[in-house]
Amino acid sequence: MSQGERNLQEMHGTKRRADAFYNNQMIDYLNTEMQEFVKARQFLFMSTSDAGGNCDSTFKAGEPGFVYIIDNKRLMYPEYRGNGVMASLGNITENPHIGLLFIDFFEDQIGLHVNGAAEIIENDELHTIIPDKNTRTALFAQHENRTELWVVTTVHEAYIHCSKHIPKLVDTKNLTDWGTDDTKNLTDWGTDDTKKKGGDYFKVKQSKKERE
């Protein structure tokens, strides 16, 4: 959390709600539910900024499992050969702060924010992160040896992005009754129903109790 958000909470009278969110939905590691959620994703949205605070956002994708969970404090994803600009990687060399957003648009309509510190790992340095040779070999095979670099993120914050404004993506070409109430109103926009917003989807309360 930032001082800026705290200042605005005080200004707009939302501190009590914000504290409830911090206490009930935010942790500084990936619990089991979060790890399984990440493993099932085929894409993520990522934000970085350079030393001057100039931001860049981008999209990363791969087969489920392309984001590898190292442990409950670290995850990593591969950087494939691209256009050579390396905007995000360049930012990371100047400013390690990174924001990752994983979203399920298709089933549960829920999201996971992961904020932390990133570092770039070369292929020949991967043994410092993944000591087991068989695991490294499997990772390279999984990505068909297309990986040029890896980005390792150490988790500082992990928390839910509720279902409230996440649309359900469907193939409208295969819906003969598209436009009816059942297919048109796939999202309960603006709801304050805790259950409809996702509730404690990642079981953060339980994780906190287990650590007490």
Protein topology:
Blueprint: H1 3-12, H2 15-25, E1 26-27, H3 32-39, E2 43-49, E3 55-61, E4 68-71, E5 74-80, H4 87-94, E6 97-104, E7 110-122, H5 133-142, E8 147-161, H6 181-184, H7 204-211
Antiparallel strand pairs: 1-8, 2-3, 2-6, 4-5, 5-8, 6-7, 7-8
User: How many domain modules?
Assistant: 1
- At the first level of CATH, what is the class? Mainly Beta
Euclidean distance between termini CA atoms: 22 Å
- As a percent range, the share of helical residues equals 25-40%
CATH architecture: Roll
Averaging pLDDT over every residue, what do you get? 88
DSSP helical segment count? 7
User: Quick one: how many beta strands?
Assistant: 8
Q: Give the SSE order as H and E letters.
A: HHEHEEEEHEEHEHH
How much of the residues is beta strand, in percent? 25-35%
Helix/strand structural class: alpha+beta
Shape: globular
Q: Per CATH, what is the topology? A: Pnp Oxidase, Chain A
| CATH homologous group name | Electron Transport, Fmn-binding Protein, Chain A
Structure description:
This protein has 212 residues and is an alpha+beta fold. The protein has one domain: Pnp Oxidase, Chain A (Roll), CATH 2.30.110.10. It is built from 7 helices and 8 strands, in the order ααβαββββαββαβαα. It has helices at 3-12, 15-25, 32-39, 87-94, 133-142, 181-184, 204-211; strands at 26-27, 43-49, 55-61, 68-71, 74-80, 97-104, 110-122, 147-161. Strands 1, 2, 3, 4, 5, 6, 7 and 8 form an 8-stranded antiparallel sheet that branches. A hairpin with a 2-residue loop joins strand 4 (68-71) and strand 5. The chain is globular. 19% of the residues are buried.
